[in-house]
Amino acid sequence: MTFPVLEKEQLSDSVFSIRLQATQVAREAQPGQFVILRIDERGERFPLTLCDWSAEDGWIYLVFQVVGRSTFKLSGLGQEDAVLDLVGPLGRPSEIERYGRVLCVGGGVGIAAIYPICRALKEVGNEIISIIGARQASLLILEEEMAAVSHRLVVMTDDGSKGQKGLVTWAMENELKRGGIDLVLAIGPAVMMKFASAVAKPFNLPVRVSLNSIMLDGTGMCGTCRVEVGGKTRFACVDGPEFDGREVDWNLLEKRLSQYKEEERLSMDQALIHKESGNSSLGCQCSK
CB–CB of 135/165 below 8 Å? Predict the structure, then answer.
């Protein structure tokens, strides 16, 4: 059984979306969960968070950034192609309850992961204030979608090319100072979630983060996703991916994330060489 590509779109310079036919996954999917893909027989297994799905029509929608050989190859698929293997939904779903006023902070491709959570929280009666951001306007994704699931949306860009100039954590702190926030969600690059957790801490508010970027195997067997949370070892793929950011050992997590940066760079360079030479056999061997 394969998973046909229904459509693919380039959302920014390095971010793509892909819609796959995956009927059983779509029927069971919940906000905060992810899937594991293997593009072909030579490919590695790698996780992507579910951005959207339709139980009725049987499709799932994934948004990903090209950071290595596997995501590079995924970005090259078209409507005549299919993904060989797809497993999911995996991970613990987000806790969707009526909290009151929820502040949702999404950075970069993390906007795609926070979108279905915000939608579900709004559907059960929460007031949603969302802050999304990117380095520049051309890298901003899903602005209209986030506006539709938010009572108020704040857009931030590092260079001021759209919305307000500055970091999402700056806007987050301003919102917290206004008061009335009951829960904070922050999903994005590790450094962004680290500082978002630090910003929320003085306000004594729970801040949920999603450690999806550290996962590899997705089943808890490989150990790649080990994180220290509250002084205890947790596995992001089976115990998470969501945790209270105030309890995460961010320094240790950042070290683990950078462990294979050189291999990732070499793998990507090799993929580009293969593309320029017209060789379509990429044989995914390194990090996504």
Answer: no
CB 127 within 8 A of CB 183: no
Q: In this structure, are residues 189 and 106 in contact, taking their beta carbons and an 8 Å threshold?
A: no
Return the SS3 of 263. helix
CB 270 within 8 A of CB 69: yes
- Can you give the pLDDT at residue 268? 57
pTM: 0.86
CA nearest neighbour of 157 among 176, 132, 175: 132
- Compute the residue count for the chain: 288
Residue by residue, what is the 3-state secondary structure of 83-145?
ECEEEEEECCCCCCCCCCEEEEEEECCHHHHHHHHHHHHHHCCCEEEEEEEECCHHHCCCHHH
Q: In this structure, which long-range contacts are made by residues 145-152, counting pairs with CB atoms below 8 Å and at least 24 apart in sequence?
A: 145/115, 146/106, 146/111, 146/115, 146/118, 149/115, 149/118, 149/119, 149/122, 150/104, 150/118, 150/122, 151/122, 151/127, 152/128
Location of structure tokens 């995924």:
74
Closest to 87 (Cα-Cα) out of 133, 22, 136, 138: 22
| Residues 191-229 pLDDT 10s | 999 999 999 989 999 899 998 766 666 666 776 777 888
> Phi first, then psi: what are they for 131, rounded to 5°?
-125, 120
CB 86 within 8 A of CB 35: yes
For the CA atoms of 196, 50, 241, 183, the dihedral, rounded to the nearest 10 degrees, stands at 40
How far apart (Å, rounded) are the C-alpha atoms in residues 265 and 212? 20
CATH superfamily of 3-91: Translation factors (2.40.30.10)
